């Protein structure tokens, strides 16, 4: 069995798990109503059954687990995006959607039973204190952190704490004669939702958004202002692999591009109540050109952005048909530290289309649609995209758009089977590239001391020797015999991008990786062609 086939179910499982945690941030006026909690024979029946099991069943049973199974069973009969969040997952989920956590600000990896710092997060407490990539954290507040085979979760608990609380670290640094002492005051550490913002050409800026968290708009706005200052008159907004998040954050981002009073979307709930959202006068890029990059993993809030831009004839949607999620969730506390994200309404793009895929056949069939797209050839050929003529809509500019299953791009770009190879993507997600690059850097970090960031991105070459070393590294750690004969250059690009990330931090990975991205190339081509058309039009006048 090949490496790719062996791990494909796991890869898809990860993608699905990411996708179902997407949702909205709408008011749900009935949550305070007494009728939600009045006596009901069905509720009493369920409570009585749990009580019988807890007090009278012959064996001891963990009734918490029974309740979890019951909740999941109930939600499984609703829609694919109403989900239960157990209390043990709530902190992680909350931090991801909030966009920060309290800690010391490092990315690390457990290397030979020692916490090895990959790099200190820019402007975080550890970076300010002088922690560097390659440092080993030996002790925290007198507690040894080496040789214990601690799990990452246990390590994080020891390094996290209350905001402004202090942690005393003892650190081993290669070349130093003794352990170094650091006192670090814990602070808020951002979980970046904007991966990169930089110029692709003299007029075309690029922003990559990986999800819509509470902090996303602030990050986006900062990136947009930087690009405008650098001369950007066009923006490529990359929403590929973005599973969504807060609806309100998506609205704020769309508002940067749409003129005053343009409809962004409207929602409709169970009672038929409609709420409309309009653009305001706050936008900084209303006169600029926008390209929105989407793919089959762009969902929910990503589709809100793409749909609003497309339906208002504002810009160009580039890529492949998006995921197809037009349901809005609201998170509701269940009283024991757990919560449920319940679908409370549907959203519609400005032309009135719902882009929600059908789910009447059940969740398994719903999530297996990826395989149907793959098997049908849709990811390679736009003619294979199935549309429903009964769900045809027209934009104010006369463009035909369709509902019923995601946003269909204006300009199709097929999946790149080289750079988007499932095996290479899997190795990246699971940290194999990152761990390998860390160990390579450990051999002599000073080799890179005098290479400026931009020079590294533009000119640094990864040698064949590193590709072969990576093959050997994998073959010692996996059950499969891995060779990269057909993907030699692609592996070099992954290694270089990962090197850039560990050496230079935020945005460096994308700047390197995008150099071989065919969708980025297509956007640059569209931008250049528009410039030529403008020049020809000006000349003809």
What does this structure look like?
It is a single chain. This protein has 541 residues and is an alpha+beta fold. Helix content is 38%, strand content 20%. The chain contains 18 helices and 21 strands. The chain has helices at 3-19, 41-56, 63-75, 87-98, 125-129, 152-159, 216-229, 247-255, 301-311, 363-367, 369-376, 422-429, 432-443, 453-459, 464-477, 488-504, 508-513, 518-540; strands at 83-85, 100-103, 106-111, 114-120, 136-140, 143-144, 166-172, 180-185, 187-190, 194-199, 204-209, 234-238, 263-269, 274-278, 289-294, 316-319, 327-333, 339-348, 392-394, 400-402, 411-412. Strands 3, 4, 5, 6, 7 and 8 form a six-stranded antiparallel β-sheet that branches. The chain has a six-stranded mixed β-sheet with strand order 10-11-12-15-16-21, with helices on both faces. Helix 7 (216-229) runs parallel beside helix 8, helix 8 (247-255) runs parallel beside helix 9 (301-311) and helix 13 (432-443) crosses helix 16.
Q: What is the CA-atom radius of gyration, in angstroms?
A: 25 Å
> Helicity range of the residues?
25-40%
Overall 3D geometry? globular
Low-confidence stretches: 1-35
Tell me the total number of β-strands. 21
| Number of H- or I-type helical stretches | 18
Question: Helix/strand/pairing class, anyone?
Answer: alpha+beta
How confident overall, as mean pLDDT? 87
> What amount of the residues lies in strands?
15-25%
Biggest sheet, open or closed, and with what strands and sense? 6 strands, antiparallel
N- and C-termini, Cα separation: 64 Å
